[in-house]
Design goal:
alpha+beta, six-stranded antiparallel β-sheet, 22% helix
Amino acid sequence: MTVLDEMSPASADLIFAALDYAVENAGLSDEGFTPFAFSDSPKGRGLTRFLAGQGANLQECLAAGRTALRVVEHDVTCVALAWDGYYTHEGRRSEAVFVEGYQIGHDRGVLLAQRYTRHDGALSMEGNPVLIDEPVPLVQSRRQIDGA
């Protein structure tokens, strides 16, 4: 049993929606995409992109995303941070999108990778998404409602 099995259907849906959107973004350019986060709350789904410095350094942009996700709005139920990079599996390096997802209140999250190859401008998925890790949540607290 993995942490995905312990998440609500809405949280799992958000994480896989982020994975699908990451794959879609990866197909738009050979240069990768700006890391983004999806968040879920009773108000709906939110999308935030993270730029740092000149926006060209993936590690700086991911650090900005992780910093921003340490504190979320009081009603957020799940967050998912996504980026494009490389994954080595069984000694073979390939392009991949990654999603780090957390249901608020759980003590661990998920880190998924979906490998792909490019052929004539189109992406082909390599296998199914892989659960790489069950990391400690990024989210450390929630913003309080004004006056509360």
